[in-house]
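Before relying on records like the one below, remember that each one covers exactly one chain. Contacts with other chains, cofactors or solvent are not represented anywhere in the record.
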Amino acid sequence: MISDKGKKAVWSIKAEKGDFILKKLAIDEERLKFMVYAINYLRANGVHTPEIKKRLTEKIM
């Protein structure tokens, strides 16, 4: 665990497929949709930001 602030936490994960950062956020669905859209927009326009990975059992918004 890198950080734990109650509702927010960050873990560093080492796996066979590479290293990952896992973040826990306490936000509502609308805010999450906005964040996913904003990150995807920035990535599509040349800004280098980490890719958002979905959980295996869910689809990304």
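Helices lie at 29-44.
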